[in-house]
ROK family protein (Cellulomonas phragmiteti), 784 residues
Amino acid sequence: MSRTSNPIAARTASPVQRQLRPTAKVLPEHARAHNRSLVLGHLFHEGPSSRADIARSTGLTRVTVSDLVAALLAEGLVADLGVRAESRVGKPATLVGLRSSEHHVVVVDLADDATVHGAVMTLVGDVVVREHVTGAGATGTAAVTLVEDLCRRLVERASRPVIGVGISSPGVIDAGGRVVEAPNRGWYGEPLAARLTGVLGLPVHVANDANTRALGEYTYGGAAADAMIVTVGQGVGAGMLVDGALVRGRGHAAGEIGHVTVVDEDTAGETPEPCACGRTGCLETVLSAPALRRRTAGLTPQDADATLASVGRMLGRALAPVVSALNLAEVLLSGPPELLDGSLREAVATTLRDRTMPVIGHDLRVRMAALDEDAALAGAAVLVLSGQLGIT
Amino acid sequence: MSRTSNPIAARTASPVQRQLRPTAKVLPEHARAHNRSLVLGHLFHEGPSSRADIARSTGLTRVTVSDLVAALLAEGLVADLGVRAESRVGKPATLVGLRSSEHHVVVVDLADDATVHGAVMTLVGDVVVREHVTGAGATGTAAVTLVEDLCRRLVERASRPVIGVGISSPGVIDAGGRVVEAPNRGWYGEPLAARLTGVLGLPVHVANDANTRALGEYTYGGAAADAMIVTVGQGVGAGMLVDGALVRGRGHAAGEIGHVTVVDEDTAGETPEPCACGRTGCLETVLSAPALRRRTAGLTPQDADATLASVGRMLGRALAPVVSALNLAEVLLSGPPELLDGSLREAVATTLRDRTMPVIGHDLRVRMAALDEDAALAGAAVLVLSGQLGIT
DNA sequence: TTTGTAAGGAAGGTCTACTAACAAACATGT
DNA sequence: ACATGTTTGTTAGTAGACCTTCCTTACAAA
């Protein structure tokens, strides 16, 4: 074997260079914030607990937990709930609990072109106030103003301290809340989060609607840590969860699967249809809610089922490589149940199992998303919980 | 809109429950370890630097960096290189550098069924010693003993302190170095890392060979942080990098794309062939090195190119959903260049661009892997660098 | 009543990184 | 030649964060 051209050896003289990622230093206070999030996360997921419970769960000592809880009590995020009712051996525990109804989150969903939906929510996702504005056709700065006004009204109507604002929008959105590209609102490089923070004086988080849905399903809907949530509405999108974290991708466009080609000339029983994007045979031409309705309109239930199953098989074909490459635990379908939760979903499941090796397809679950139409709002709330409190 | 069945609201009484991941507490010493890795990582990627350089790069103060460097000097991981040659304004800087040739890593590659390849490497991936054992047919415990003996010999032949052992093996391997399933060696649930650590008294890291290749390409080969490295050899595998981290997947089987179905009855110009896995039309039946050689044997160069292009199109079809879902920056092909680096690679690239939306396919790169046949060994070394020094 | 167990708090110690201040060593301008 | 400004690396002191150890409180079980 010739080793002279070893590219590793060739680099020995000069160091191994790479575009350095902004790896952040860690200060003691960051450790503190992390452990604080651990405590909050425990209370969020497990409910009222004693300090000793939290200590066991987090691995921190009781002393440290007491200290953190004291700080949280002072902040008002946590409340003393008195002694635990059930009594075991030893000194009875005093419970502390997250004051989830004593803090509010303002959330906005921009998925609907005609109407902007907003709400005030508690930390556990209960809707306290609901508002909407009809902003048909508003684009550019006008659309930003629309969102601004809605947020302001919601903040005013919140009866508790508002922890932050979460916004779910279609389009390509970067981690800093800048809308890189959202054709439906005419936003290109719009610094939405920064602008709203300036106006409202509150932390604002913005993310793609398919991604927020995925977050919502993970936090409130029991989705697995390695999952794909396919959202079917006017278009088709997806949120990807890998190891419990949202995948954003190189250009912040992860999950944009609506315009993957799935219908070819040689696809049995199908003809590629033109897509709004200018190409043909895109997933959206067969799987979007309008496309599904159009394709099943006027058919007998049997024929409609067959049609839906056919679409399910196409989706399954497309997802099989994704499921295999990431070894996903779950594929969730979010959208109209009358279209998705039947032969379509079953066809996706069987196709995925047929087209992947057993170790991949064996314990893969294909199910409907657990959350209803408020999933995007709930996910927007998770943006805030995650960003401000570290709860995931 | 009916909101009564809101599953979020329904959960308000009980807390939001989920399978808790082992979220680790962070102690001051962990912060220290993290910052230490930051210093080492800077020296690894940027080469000899002054303490002030490191401080600017990491965001830590010069005082802290001096302290960390002092500790690393005491450990012998870093050396004082004297004053910088070029002189600028101000006090001349004293350079410190990673003593990459003064420490060794022992690496083993188990991809070859007939021979086990091993090497002693420096921290920058230079091969110092090369050894191999012919272990045709060794399985189960005998195969473990084979690896054990090879490691021991390599450790003995290492002329510098050995930081750890890295092993690259086909099969499904969990994060703790347990081989869940490796049919070629007859390993099922084999705790390889633990066993070797016990015998050698050194830190041992084990990972799937496609994954180690991906790590090697990332660290030594300049691969992007969001990339897929497709490895073509006896079979077909892949390593997935998302945000610079290896994806392991729900059942540690991420990257197992060799048995995704890519050939159907309706695939133009192709007939599904039976696969060793018992199904038909798997990616391995067309893309493995033997399959490619068989399909192109005896053909004119033009016909061979057409055949390779056809396989490239099939691969492109399979990868388009993956590239879209994750918004990957790069797809790397690792394997025989005479088969892959031509019409096949070009077909993959054009197919991917044709079948994805512009925002996804626009700046996607499809190229050959930068590292040669030692890529797996280099990746195994990265396992150790990453696990012991925190360098990625 | 005694014993054992568990919860929570107080005191003291160690570790970590920061700020402030300074000396050393050099380039540059007058 | 000499003062000035710049950059480096170190010393000293401070604040934060978590730990270990010990104590008190409160209850169940024997």
Notes: Confidence is low (pLDDT under 50) at residues 1-15, 17-21 of chain B. The CA atoms of residues 84 and 93 of chain B lie 6 Å apart.
